[in-house]
Amino acid sequence: MPAISRRTADLGTENAFVVLAEVTALLRQGRDVISFCIGQPDFATPAHIQDAAIEAIRDGRHGYTPSAGIDALREAAAHYLGRMRGVAVAPDEVVVGAGAKPFIAYSILSTTDYGVGDEVIYPNPGFPIYESQIKAHGAVPVPLPLREARNFAFDPADLEARLSPRTKLLILNSPHNPTGGILARKDLEDIAAILRRHPAVWVYADEIYSRLCYEGEFASIASLPGMYERTIICDGASKTWAMTGWRLGFASNPVLAPQFVRWVTNTDSCASQITQWAAVQAINGPQDEAEAMRASFIERRDLIVRLLNDAPGVTCKTPGGAFYAWPNVTEACRMIGAADSEEFRKRLLHEAGVAVLADIHFGARVPGEGQHVRFSYAASPQAIEAGVARMADFIRKNTRRAA
Asked: Which of 225, 260, 284 is the last residue of a domain?
């Protein structure tokens, strides 16, 4: 039998989908499971966006588009990205993709060379595709630890210690998956000051949760003097307008946009034309439903944080954005005799019917930071109340048994 490549065999994955498959198998067996493992809005895509897609279908907009995207969407996205960040973004600096995720790979491919020791710094814990794509494309992953004491931002000194002549790309994610942490403007100013001493380093600003920032105003490093030219801004439709399955993202950079176009041509050819017309309406149309979703997420955030902090052995910081809670379960693990957060997660699923993700699904556990799990609170308030109550009961029952 022919062998698969080592690159494929070693390729990482997004464990949210692995756990989702486990949950689906339990549901098929008739088990009652409340799932908090997938990060996607539990709302329908707003009707005016759906209508724009139907209109595109009826109008025969079924064919290929330019790899960079349709003009109407590039113009809308340029205005949208620039307005939110206070920078001038030209339409020809914007590239449309089949989701925001491909731009992680395109950015690594466009700024590093395979197997020569080029380094990419990325947040840890972090979206697992960062690390897997860095490795798959022959660069060296350099994790940057996030600290609970800093509300899951990183210490700028930790960044400076990791920068070297081999560093080609720094990945920033704010608001952040999985912790919900945000980089405030002061954080970004400190980071920019360090990067100005390292002018050869690009920045990938993953800002897919930019409209889901709850503490203060959303801030982008691209807005700081001299930073837009070296920053790849990446955003998209999935989280803001509940369009995860539509697969539509966009990125901008004045230098790298033409390179991204070539990568799109080599991979997807173009994003779906129908989805692109829907995204034009998402950006340019009424924002009432997007704002209503955001308001709902704030209510759910406050609910889940309060309930988690009432659970025995659990503490939870209030996330500044996105729709994830990242409770510390170090004491809960000790109370029930679980070796770590992954054992806690597995037992919680199989014994209590509550699905979450463990910290090790988002990178190697940061030394000294304890044990954490991730809840996606893109779930109904009723599910949040029931799920956290089950977890609290699970901890109480198993504490008595351990004693």
From this structure: 284
Domain boundary among 258, 284, 310: 284
Q: Write out the residue range of the structural domain in which residue 200 sits.
A: 63-284
Q: What backbone torsions phi and psi does residue 317 show, to the nearest 5 degrees?
A: -70, 155
User: Which tens digit of pLDDT belongs to each residue from 42-79?
Assistant: 999 999 999 999 999 999 999 999 999 999 999 999 99
Residues 308, 234 share a domain: no
pLDDT-based confidence at 402, cuts 50/70/90? low
3-state secondary structure of 341: helix
In this structure, is residue 45 part of a structural domain? no
Does this model's pTM top 0.70? My answer is yes
Tokens of 4: 């698969």
Sign of CA dihedral 289, 292, 296, 297: positive
Structure token pair of residue 30: 């008739």
Q: Is the pLDDT of residue 267 over 80?
A: yes
- Whether 57 maps to a domain, the answer reads no
Pairing relationship of beta strands 354-355 and 34-35 according to DSSP bridges? parallel
> Which tens digits make up the pLDDT trace of 104-149?
999 999 999 999 999 999 999 999 999 999 999 999 999 999 999 9
